[in-house]
Amino acid sequence: MSGSRALCTVLSAAKVELPLLFFAGTSFHPPVANTLLLHGDDSPVAGTGSAQRLDAQVCSVAAVSASEEHEENGPPPPPRLRITKGAPWRIDAGRRAKWSTKEFVAKNAVNVRQIGDPVLHAPAKKPRLPRGDIEALVSRMFASMVVARGVGIAAPQVGVPLRVAIMDVDDAGVVAIEPELEWVSDQVEETSEGCLSVRGLYGMLERPVAARLVATDVAGKRFTVEGEEFGAQCMIHETEHLAGVLYVDRLKSRDDLHPVESEEETQRETA
Questions:
Q1: How many of the other CB atoms lie within 10 Å of CB of 250?
Q2: What separation in angstroms does the CA of 101 have from each of 24, 128, 139, 218, 271?
Q3: Percentage of residues in the chain with pLDDT exceeding 70?
């Protein structure tokens, strides 16, 4: 998905709200609202009742320090994100002193794969990795997304054909493993959409105005995310990536595809 910023504020133990994400530049039109509600396994899902706070997908993120992770006399490993419990998702790569955010990004970021690359056009597979490897993959995805100034990314976009996605992430976001759309609204609106894997272009297409997604967090627990407007659009966009579908595959006509006005806008807008 395309967007220039995403912040996450924990409003209560029951709700996490991601404020509106604005498209940069004049070619994109921000939606009316963007709200994601996160629920635990036993919680109602339509915004009714109380939802429990999630264990691991609403989490703080910090780079693992070299001193903590490598053998006493061995070389330090590349920094990666550590996912912990109980705080809003945020990148804090310098928290353990040895790695700055700049170093974290430099060590983990890779080029985002572009349209035409086979990994983007085939269904991704279920990840069967230990948690440490999942966190290392998330580190690569997060850093690559930051470099590209995105707000969401799927594992195939960094060359890994596994069903893992980050959605609405910048200073905040959700890691979704094996995400599936449980429900989408029958009401649709025409909206603009871009993609880190389709650089320099954006398209106009119809998307549902609301959606509900279920996924697994890094601890193996299922959770539910509800999105409206851009929140729903982002969830659908990233989930379709994992099915080998790009937003350009949904366009009715080539006339619905337009160039972004400048490279600077492309870098800000595409995610």
A1: 16
A2: 24, 29, 12, 22, 20
A3: 57
The verdict on residue 1 lying in a domain is no
What is the end-to-end Cα distance of the chain in Å, rounded?
5
**Quick count: other Cβ atoms within 10 Å of Cβ 68?**
10
Are 207 and 186 spatial neighbours (Cβ–Cβ below 8 Å)? no
- Helix then strand count (H, E) for the chain reads 5, 14
Question: Distance between CA atoms of 21 and 34, rounded to whole angstroms?
Answer: 7
- 205 located within any domain: yes
CATH number at residue 202: 3.90.45.10
129-155 pLDDT, tens digit per residue, is 988 898 889 889 988 988 898 888 999
238 catalytic residue (yes or no): yes
CA distance 58 to 45: 17
Identify the domain containing residue 231 by its residue range.
9-269
234: in domain = yes
Residue 122 is classified by DSSP as S
Per residue in 44-68, pLDDT tens? Answer: 222 222 222 222 222 233 333 333 3
Q: Does residue 4 fall inside a structural domain?
A: no
3-state secondary structure 11-60: EECCEEECCCCCCCCCCCCCCCCCCEEEECCCCCCCCCCCCCCCCCCCCC
Total domains in the fold of the chain: 1
Q: Which of 226, 229, 238, 269 does the annotation list as catalytic?
A: 238
